Amino acid sequence: MPASKRDQLLATAEQLFYEEGFHATGIDRIVAAAGVVRMTLYNHFASKEALVAAVLATRHERFMASLDTATASAVPGQVTRALVDAHGRWLEDHSPHGCIMVKAMGEFAEHSTEIHALAVAAKADLLARLEASLARDGLDHQDGLARQLFMVLEGSNTAVALQGTQTALADTQALTDTLLSVAQGKTE
Amino acid sequence: MPASKRDQLLATAEQLFYEEGFHATGIDRIVAAAGVVRMTLYNHFASKEALVAAVLATRHERFMASLDTATASAVPGQVTRALVDAHGRWLEDHSPHGCIMVKAMGEFAEHSTEIHALAVAAKADLLARLEASLARDGLDHQDGLARQLFMVLEGSNTAVALQGTQTALADTQALTDTLLSVAQGKTE
DNA sequence: CTTTATATAGACCGATCCATCTATATACGG
DNA sequence: CCGTATATAGATGGATCGGTCTATATAAAG
């Protein structure tokens, strides 16, 4: 079946919001690009803010699903590496110009508590996945290791945007390996 | 002497842009908050885009000066640590909600090549400072170490915004120490 | 055939956007 | 004292903003 108008709007809005910014993208631009009429948007979403929230929520779902798929089949000792690799593939495929949640936090911190909270929750989800992965790798004893790896992934977002996937993802992997090796050493 | 109108405008615009976003902050808001009339702004800046560029440029100057001051007096072997600490103090004092350059890249990538280039250049300056610091510490042999530390600092920006300075800066320091210790070990 | 849901076309609203204009006022330096 | 620079006050411009409205059209489900 063809994508519903609602899905067309979500996909179009996601692309425009990500590439051109939230406030800089008007409703008219979105409906025109989606090949849909103005009222159709307001039939599916109560407001622009609701549309933004829906875009972020659905994108985050896909992001989490891709991480979970990648780690599900990983063997113990390689779960965290699999997670970091999956994160890198996401950047490569869907997020080469910075993280949409970070952008949303920057644009809506003072304008929408709902959207800001949604972005913060998304980051908390990522940190939780790191903690779970470390646990499966037997590395959950080190206080702060999950947060340190989280910091690396956040930096990787910006590094990819500035230096390209080739360099940035190689650096991310090397950095992660160093951290995990040190952590492994402290265990034995 | 009291701050010039131009400086008042720069300071006010910097605060509003940083806290509320660039596109979300209108000219009227800025002039009202600065206690200045509309034409005064256009007497000093050709356009809103020029104002944004001036804000980013002056802020970046201050940022670089604070880094250089901190590293100038550092003893060899502690220069990079001093740089990372100075970066942390900057986040604490002036940038607790994310990096303004990252925000600018997100909002202007598709709208102003001048502003985008300015932000990219600012990030290149930071990376260059890391390379110079590592050289003074005798750690410039390790390929990619500067970029890895850069990645950590970029992640630190977001981590501070999400977890607060207390936790995030402690994690940043621990992470940096690990990386520098490993690099030091590889030298001997 | 008729009901219900969804989409279209397009006018309309007040608000705000960035930018420009003229005319007046203030203040400092030669 | 006079000229230049800077600031003020306030109107004005066209464009776009997010959001609402009505009337019409389509199509599937009863």
UniProtKB/TrEMBL annotation, chains A, B:
UniProt keyword annotations, A-Z: DNA-binding, Transcription, Transcription regulation
Domain HTH tetR-type: 3-63
Record has Nuclease as a keyword: no
The keyword Transcription is assigned to this record: yes
Molecular function in Gene Ontology: DNA binding
Ranges annotated as DNA-binding: 26-45
Pfam families reported for this sequence: TetR_N
The protein, known as: Transcriptional regulator
Organism: Ectothiorhodospira haloalkaliphila
